[in-house]
Each structure stands twice: as structure tokens, then as C-alpha cells.
């Protein structure tokens, strides 16, 4: 295991975990501006939990979605995936803190620490995949409605919350891949083994040069 790569992977996983926590409650997953005069111009924005509107005077009003079952299927799925991503990132971060070499929490058993770190890397990758699927699915529906000429409702554009989610997913997958590849998942202990020769080992003092030379016969010389 490379300690430098492990620390970099741990930092990437931590940053991605923070960013997915920021993206989840962010209100600007999709935005739409209704142009009019100075009074009627307003901005409408939504996320996974509520819908808000702000007029040109700065007054904003938010309304939470009243029913879970009345929501579209992709919103419900995005909620579940984002919450799962936060949970996976939490366990991955704890596992990475225990599994890295510079941590004393896991003791001196480097095989066990390597397996814990490898598992944490897999959890980070799963976190990134869940986040990527959630934000990409949400963005796909936004673009599909925006470019549909027969869509009767309000057309939205991609908000900043989705970009934060994409960055979080990329960092999580990168950190998890680095952490998984840097760990040895085998069973070899990281301790130096004593050197053993194939022949017979003799104990005692080494013979002098004259004694060693006398052991050879005359026919041994060319």
C-alpha cells in the first residue's frame, strides 16, 4: 500500500462526501426565469424537496412538495439514490480512516488494514455511482422537457445543484479507485521474512584459507 496515494484518496473521498451533502439540500437543481416587466419578472427554482419562486423585488416563497407518492418517479428515485450516496460515503470515510497506513486505529495488522481500505474504496465508488445516476437522471428529464415543443408546463434549465453533484460523483469515483488500487487485498504480511538457503546450513567458524585449500586434491587444479 502506498501511504501517499491513500492520503490523496482519503481527501478526495472526504471532499466528495461534503459536496454530496451540499448538493442534496441545494435549492437550485433546476431554474426557470419568467420574463416580464419590472414587477412581474420572477425566477422559479426547484430541488428534490420543494419548489420556490423569487420576484424582482427579492421576495421569495417556497412550497414543499405535499405528497411523496404524487411526485414523478425520477424525483423519488433521485431522493433515494442521494440519501444512499450519503450513507455509503459515511461508511466509506470511516473505513478509510481505519484502513490507511498512517492511522493507528487498525493496529499493526496490515493485511486487515488493507482489506478495510479496499472496502472503503469500493464504498466510495458506489457513492459516486449513486450520485452520478441521480443527478444525470434528473438532468435528463430537464433537457427532455426543455427541448420538447409540445411540453405544456414550465421549461427549466440545469441548476447549480446538479453541477455540484457531478463534481462530487467524479471525485468519489476517483478517490475510491485510487484507494482500491493502492491496497493489496492478498494474504501476504508486510513483515520481512528471514532468508533461507536451499542447501544445508553449517554452523561454526569459517575455515581458514590454508585449511580450505588442503581439502582439494591435486586433480582439482588445472
Task: Tell me the Rg in angstroms.
Answer: 31 Å
Characterize the main sheet: 5 strands, antiparallel
What's the arrangement of strands in the largest beta sheet?
4-3-2-1-5
Count of alpha/pi helices: 5
Strand segment tally: 5
Mean pLDDT: 79
Low-confidence stretches: 185-193
Q: How far do the termini sit from each other? A: 54 Å
> How helix-rich are the residues, as a percent range?
40-55%
The arrangement of helices and strands along the chain is HEEEEHHEHH
State the secondary-structure class.
Answer: alpha+beta
* Shape field: elongated
Strand content: 5-15%
Question: What does this molecule look like?
Answer:
Strands 4-3-2-1-5 form a 5-stranded antiparallel beta sheet. Strand 2 and strand 3 form a beta hairpin. It is 51% helix and 10% strand. It has 5 helices and 5 strands; from the N terminus they run H-E-E-E-E-H-H-E-H-H. It is α+β, with helices and mostly antiparallel strands. The relative contact order is 0.18. It is elongated.
Short description:
The chain is 51% helix and 10% strand. It contains five helices and five strands.
Index terms:
about 220 residues, alpha+beta, five-stranded antiparallel beta sheet
Note the topology.
Blueprint: H1 3-23, E1 30-34, E2 42-46, E3 50-55, E4 60-64, H2 73-99, H3 110-146, E5 157-158, H4 160-181, H5 209-214
